Amino acid sequence: MAMGASLVVTALVPGVLRVSAAGADVGNAGIFELDGNVAQDSATQPPYDWSCLFNGGCTQPSSSTLISSAFSNDSPTPDTTYFSPTKDIVDTSSWSCTTQNTPLAKDDIQNAYAAAFVPSSGPKAGHVLAYFGEERASSNGDSFAGFWVFQHPHNCSGTGAFSGGGHDKGDLLLVSSYTNGGGSATVQLYEWDPTNAAAVNNLVLLDDGFTCGAAGPGSPDICGIANSAPMLEPWAPNATLPANAFVETGVDLTDEFRNNLN
């Protein structure tokens, strides 16, 4: 899977309108760990992580409802999901994919996944909290990850154009960049809206976040973090990922829709 490929999340998000408690942030909602690894870690308290969701062995917290999840497996070479020259600022009607026999390790996404929960208690009760994770085969310097939240499906297999036509106004792009071995992160949320006067290359910046688990600056509604040490994948290809090769992000979609998408 090519670096830059986006995990498609097609479910429309219900707009539950509740006000966040003061000081609450998506990285401390008490439901899902955003700690730079995929394993449930008893030291960080939240009872759920990616390995729980897709490998089992954990009990889903009764204080939340899982409303959607997806796991996109890596493709063996020749990789049929490799993006042709395609950028996020270009409409999906012009996206394409191709077959790559020898993808560069630093550009090769191993797996990508996503999940959305609605807590029934705590500081984010009633909010739709979406989480995204991505692995790449190698880390070379800084790491970047992008996740699109589409309102209808966009897919590509083999070689050719993506199905699904163009973007819908309001499609969301979550972009994360990680530096210092994953110790620092910047996270931005964009909306696809070419008609908006504030749009730059068809995208409107909605929010700017921070490193999960760290004190500001940035929005409490989005955060991201990468692995600061080598991490063993608990699923195929069961590789040990170097530092800064795994990235995960979280976003409070309810707050973002209420505050930015009126």
SSE layout:
Layout: H1 50-55, E1 64-72, E2 79-83, E3 96-100, E4 109-119, E5 129-136, E6 143-149, E7 160-161, E8 172-179, E9 184-192, E10 203-208, E11 210-211, E12 222-226, E13 231-232, E14 240-241, E15 246-252, H2 253-260
Parallel strand pairs: 11-12
Antiparallel strand pairs: 1-4, 2-3, 3-7, 4-5, 5-15, 6-8, 8-9, 9-10, 12-15, 13-14
What is shown here, in short?
It is globular and about 45 Å long. It has helices at residues 50-55, 253-260, and strands spanning 64-72, 79-83, 96-100, 109-119, 129-136, 143-149, 160-161, 172-179, 184-192, 203-208, 210-211, 222-226, 231-232, 240-241, 246-252. It has two helices and 15 strands.
Descriptive account of the structure:
The chain is mainly beta and 262 residues long. The protein is built from two helices and 15 strands. The strands form four sheets. It has a six-stranded mixed sheet with strand order 1-4-5-15-12-11. Strands 6-8-9-10 form a four-stranded antiparallel sheet, with no helix packed on it. Strands 2-3-7 form a three-stranded antiparallel sheet, with no helix packed on it. A hairpin with a 4-residue loop joins strand 8 and strand 9. The longest helix is centred in the last third of the chain and has 8 residues. It is globular and about 45 Å long. The termini are far apart. The N terminus is likely disordered.
